[in-house]
Amino acid sequence: MLRRTWSIRRPQAYSLTRRVDPGTAMQREKGMIRCQVTLLDDCVFTCDMDKNHQGEILLGEVAKHLDLLEKDYFGLAYTDEGMMKWVEAGKQLKKQFKGSRLLALQFRVKFYVPDPSHLQEELTRYLFFLQIKNDISSGRLPCSFESAALLGSYMVQAELGDYSPRKHQQGYVSELQLFPGQTEDLEEKIAQFHREHSGKTTQEAEFLLLANAKRLEFYGVELFPAKDHHGIDLSLGITTDGIAVFKSRTIITTFLWIDIRKITFKRRRFFIELRPNQDTGEQNAVGFHMDSYDAANSCGKTASTITQFFRTAETNAKGFMKRSKKRFSRTERQVMDESKPLALKRSASVRIKRVPPKRQPRRTIGTNLGVQGGGGASMGGIPRRNRSFNMYDITQKPQVTIRANGYRDMSEEPDDHFDDYPPLSLSQQAITVSDDMTGQFTLAALEEEHYPITHRRVSDLEQGPTDYYDDQVKQEEEIGNVCMDDLASEGLLLIRLEADERGRYGFNVKGGVDQKMPVLVSKVSPQSPAEKSNPPLEEGDQLLYINSKPVSHSRHEEVIS
């Protein structure tokens, strides 16, 4: 439970709720709903709410209980038929939970910030720390062995403090269940890194965990199971960068928000309509088959709320998409601007009571925790969206993939096809929706300068155990010294080309930092070295390195020279 000494904020103008003790058997008045909210420290907050109140009032009650200033980053989640859903802020409770008198909800992070330095208060950073811990321990946030060791060492430093040979004897890390299926080798590596963190405060260790976790590929990704027109199982991941398409454990493409014109759904079909091709003017669209109408609707809502939250201020800057008239929340920029002066006034008086770590019996020699029959530990809490998306083993290295901007079918020949929805051409299929089981979501543009559109993680967490990057340019410069073959093992595709007899490679590129877009392959000439390479270069592929030099922050002229 979190507790603070005082708050300078004014009382809310509206009538709120009557707090009740969870064990009190009081008779609820007609029209009241009892809400049991599990907090990030596993404590339960219980209150009675008027069913006519909107979801934002309930979230405000939880925030008031925690004395949380930056509540806009968080939300209240619940499980409906195996799918995680969010309590809608602007909708009455009685319309979201018809006939319900008791609600079981979870308070959790809804918007994962690209940079933890945007969080103004220590309490907010601590709640993010708890959320990342839960994501890691439940398998929602997989990572490689080295990354797990580094992240685990920050968790141990934050919860146990400096390493002490007297207090921290052999096997002390095994008392903490940090990762699913954690092994003795991993615990030894965590202990090794932990010894190097001596002198770091709890707050510093928590911040370092956030600063490193943000570079993991699945950081803040909301996953939805889907199929392509061949019936191949995929997952759509909604991120701050755009909509990522995963096959098994590998990301095969990302549709960036700056390239998406709108998203729509019709029954169980989910469509992504892209902006016209700059070279040909063709109208492109991609379709996916979701598990249900609710899944398609929920995927669209998630995409819309993320772009609404991370959009720019109320301007009509070039590139903005038509906004929905419905307001979902304040923007992150507004939250930062409004919270900063209040956070400065409150900082001297804030006192946070951190929950001690949960402990388990120490590992005996030769024992592996959480592994039964070779499988990982089961996940608790809210089930993951993607029922067909298996959890990483933390010792498994990511597979090689390519950064492609357009959808690339990387599957083998399918066993069967679906007749109920035809293949959707990337350039010919028009989107028309007209019946009751349809929907359209409009997206707000992200601020290019505030959130540069770059892929998190190039080499996962290559930095040393006591260093971290909080400067993106510095990170790119460091990455430039990494061996390209190492990058391939970390999830990127390395393509080697040899020029033809005229010294040409046979492809054109567009983009650059001066054009405010990533460097993409715009054209590949037939029978050219680029097309004949194995694997071949394709239109829409994003270039991250040329001759071992990073190009993410290069001007267009520098890329082509």
Biggest β-sheet, characterized?
8 strands, antiparallel
Give helix and strand order, one letter per element, not per position: EEEHEEHEHHHHEEEEEEEHHEHHEEHEEH
Reported by name, the CATH topology of the largest domain is PH-domain like
The CATH superfamily label of the largest domain reads Pleckstrin-homology domain (PH domain)/Phosphotyrosine-binding domain (PTB)
Give the averaged pLDDT, no decimals.
72
User: What general form does the structure show?
Assistant: globular
The CA-CA distance between the termini, in Å, is 58 Å
CATH architecture of the largest domain: Roll
For this structure, the quaternary state is single chain
The level 1 CATH classification of the largest domain is Mainly Beta
* Helix/sheet category: alpha+beta
SS field, number of helical segments: 12
**Rg measurement, Å:** 25 Å
Query: What number of structural domains do the residues give?
Result: 4
Topology, number of strands: 18
Estimate the helix proportion, in percent: 10-25%
Beta content = 15-25%
Strand order of the largest sheet: 10-9-8-7-13-12-11-14
